[in-house]
Amino acid sequence: MWDKVAERIEEFIKKKVEEAKANGVVVGISGGVDSATVAFLSTRALGKDRVLGVIMPEKGVTPEEDIEDAVEVCRILGIDHEVVFINEIVESFISKLGSNGVALANIKPRVRMTILYFFANKRNLLVAGTGNKSELRVGYFTKYGDGGVDFLPIGDLYKTEVWELAKYLGVPERIIKKKPSARLWRGQTDEDEIGLSYKKLDSILKSIESGVPVEKIPEVAGVTKEEVERVLRLIESSRHKREMPPIAPVRALIDS
């Protein structure tokens, strides 16, 4: 099965690059499984000379092992890579705007998005996003940050499925087994922020997608009623992240 999934995604990557008449793709490589999987798929689809990896750590927050793992992914694939520490850029925002918890945390992925588009514009590349279906559905991404991409190769795969595809592709095991974290601050983990494990989250999301009645999801998914309610709230509150900005409808007044 995973061979067919990989082939379908690789065809998708090729098509998007061809449609845009781009030279290839740029991938923000964090040392985590999602970005590694996208880098592997992109290289298989386009060849190593058409993929650029950009590693964007933050001194004092990004563990050294993440940087090492990101560089190792680039080495294994034979792709060109750039390392850009984001500290000075983030600090320039703080010096002008001040520091605020959530607002500051969201600046970091938006800075990384800007860096990726710098390289994309400079080299005529598309930004390959690394978001998975689990995170997209509950809005676990920053609007115009890691959500600001040209296309999403693994956006139809739940996190637990990304782990399986990564194994098939040959992503290093220590990357696959690493506790998922956006590294927005020290000690931060994705599952702590979401409020439940990816295994439970995916089980709930798959039940919703399959049309299981809400009241039956706890039994079917093996979770609590409170966990289902939490996921439903996350889906609803993040709806704006998955939609284009609404436009005030005035054409009928002007054209009448």
Relevant terms:
256 residues, alpha/beta, 13 helices, globular
Mean pLDDT over the full residue set: 94
Shape: globular
How would you classify the helix and strand content by structural class?
Answer: alpha/beta
What characterizes the major β-sheet? 4 strands, parallel
Bin the strand percentage.
5-15%
Strand order of the largest sheet: 3-2-1-4
Radius of gyration from CA coordinates: 19 Å
Number of strands: 4
In terms of quaternary structure, the protein is: single chain
User: What is the helix fraction of residues, given as a range?
Assistant: 55-70%
Termini separation (Å)? 55 Å
Low-pLDDT residue spans: none
Order of helices and strands: HEHEHEHHEHHHHHHHH
Helical run tally = 13
Task: Explain what this protein looks like in three dimensions.
The radius of gyration is 19 Å and the shape is globular. α2 (33-46) links the parallel β1 (24-28) and β2. By secondary structure, the chain is of the alpha/beta class. Strands 3-2-1-4 form a four-stranded parallel sheet, sandwiched between helices. Helices cover 55% and strands 7% of the residues. The protein has helices spanning 2-19, 33-46, 64-77, 87-97, 101-123, 133-138, 159-169, 173-176, 190-194, 198-209, 217-221, 225-237, 251-255, and strands spanning 24-28, 51-55, 80-83, 125-127.
What order do the helices and strands come in, and which of them pair?
Elements: H1 2-19, E1 24-28, H2 33-46, E2 51-55, H3 64-77, E3 80-83, H4 87-97, H5 101-123, E4 125-127, H6 133-138, H7 159-169, H8 173-176, H9 190-194, H10 198-209, H11 217-221, H12 225-237, H13 251-255
Parallel strand pairs: 1-2, 1-4, 2-3
Helix pairs in contact: 1-2, 1-7, 2-3, 2-7, 4-5
